[in-house]
Amino acid sequence: MTIELVQTDGIFALDGGEWEVTNNIWLVGDDREVLVIDAAHDAEAIAAAVHGRRVPAIVLTHGHNDHINAAAALQELVDAPILLHPADRPLWNLTHSEAPDGDLADGETLQVAGTDIHVIHTPGHAPGGCCFYVPELGVLFSGDTLFNGGPGATGRSYSDRDTLVDSIRTRLFT
What we know:
22% of the residues lie in helices and 34% in strands.
């Protein structure tokens, strides 16, 4: 099982503001298949990193545009369903007109390359925020639920600091 990082640059836009950001896209799998975690800014760069492997799904940590704006174009390149927690559908709709292909659910287990990946719903940064835990590797993919040094950002539409801190305390620390 391997973990690969693809970084892309682009714009995060919400509440009338725009910020230049670098996003992490994670590929988790092996030499035959990879799960893509987040689809930010540059579908061609992500597809190049996939390098022809099968993609069982493109899973999204949350619905902010800088994590989902390349999802539809990436789907066309790698032929994979897009999965998002339903509570983030309003954020998704700010960027895309077509619905994602399926919903992520708290407690759901995804599989890639024979390895389980557990979905943990962690609202706060966004209502449908999800983290992906891979027990076999001892790794958590947290999207913007966690930043280096603490909780992810709040203070914009659809976010709530108390909810985020509670998610970290009750869902991740446990």
